[in-house]
Amino acid sequence: MTNMRMTKYLLNNLILIFILFDLVSSYPGFCQSSENEIDKTVEKIHKRILTVDSHTDTPLNLMDNGFDISKMHKSTDDDSKYDFPRMKLGGLDAAFFGIFVPQGARTPAGNAKAKAKADRLFDTIYAVLDRYPGLAGLAVTPKDAYRLKRKGKRAIFIGIENGYPIGNDLSLIQAFYSKGARYITLCHTKNNDICDSSTDTVEFTGLSEFGENVVQYMNKIGMMVDVSHVSDKSFYDILAFSKAPVIASHSCARSICNNKRNMDDRMLQALAENGGVIQMCILSDYVKTPDPNPARDSARMELRRRYKNYETLPEAEQQNAHKEWNEIDHKFPEKLATVAEVVDHIDHIVKIAGINHVGIGTDFDGGGGVGGCFDVSEMKNITKELVKRRYSTRDIRKIWGGNLMRVMRKVVRVSRKLNPPCNC
Ligand SMILES: [Zn+2]
């Protein structure tokens, strides 16, 4: 056979193979079997790796006496997004339960009230873990989480959302650390004595003097500094001041969804240089800009007007406000972002900051939830999308908690360096 004839022969066969592949792959059973293969891969990955969600507001539900976290709930029934059976179903091994205290008056009385609320939330978490020792346990180190996973139990870490409960007393940081908290989100939606928030007016132009002491103190005792919610200027101040890597426990990429709560590309690069990690938030409004929904907006506005000064209201009133907020969401549903759009953010962060600086922090029970991952039982859908986009198991391990656990260990190592053993 001449070279020319040989080439023609090979080309014809190649075309035939392509036609056959096209025919087979268009047969419905083919896609089904490749979907099944992906599902099997996802199951294997979740068995092999530690999966960690760095932010949930579930303790707020636990304060509601009727809520039993050991039972499987339906988010369509009671708006809850988390319980132990659903964590297991979603292949989620560990979660940081948030001690969330909304910003109130920055006065001695306000600070005392905030601390009391934080203490009650800690007690609520302990009570649940005491009640169900066979289902879950407290984790304060990465080792604890791996040990609990091996025993088939859920690992519950604790993080504090809003530094408000420490008031002006640095020693309370140590007190909360001793109670098991391993990060503090320095502020929430309003400024506090520590720093400016991304959603409030400029007060300190970043970190306050007290805030500098807070960061320094957290570095010293080995507690992670969380930059979610802080203003851009606060973020850069914190990076300049912190001797340890920092985390953003629940934030997204601003160049994909333009929201002040998200981080722009320059911030993502700075975070990578700091050695920190941004935990992708799956709250729909941070994932994609919501479509206009004037009826819902005006209902929300009316509710805000009725529950003015929310932070100062008695707890029962606050719970009513929550309930009504959820009712509005049901009445005027928004078109939620999708899992694919969540992974678009991960793709972008990987491109800008690198695979070692991204993770997942859902904000479930605090507004989190997208189409295809509406509660914790659907967490594997994120892994499925990552597998479809050809992320390796090694990369998925990093995203699902490896990066966050690395930062946690590093923060402890830095604290040891800052506290050399005494030779006296
Ligand atoms: Zn938050």
What features would you describe in this structure?
This protein has two domains: 47-291 and 335-418, TIM Barrel, CATH 3.20.20.140; 292-333. The chain is built from 17 helices and nine strands. The chain has helices at residues 3-26, 28-48, 58-62, 75-78, 84-89, 108-131, 142-150, 171-178, 209-221, 232-241, 265-274, 284-287, 294-306, 315-331, 339-353, 380-388, 393-418; strands spanning 52-56, 94-100, 136-138, 154-161, 181-185, 224-226, 247-251, 277-280, 358-360. Strands 1, 2, 3, 4, 5 and 6 form a six-stranded parallel β-sheet that branches. The chain is globular and about 90 Å long. The mean pLDDT is 92. Zinc ion binds at residues 161, 229, 250, 363, 366.
Q: Hetero groups bound?
A: zinc ion
CATH superfamily of the largest domain: Metal-dependent hydrolases
Task: Please name the CATH topology of the largest domain.
Answer: TIM Barrel
Total E-strand runs? 9
Name the features.
424 residues; 2 domains; alpha/beta; 6-stranded parallel beta sheet; 9 strands; 17 helices; TIM Barrel; 10% strand; binds zinc ion; 3-stranded parallel beta sheet
Quick rundown:
This protein has 424 residues and is an alpha/beta fold.
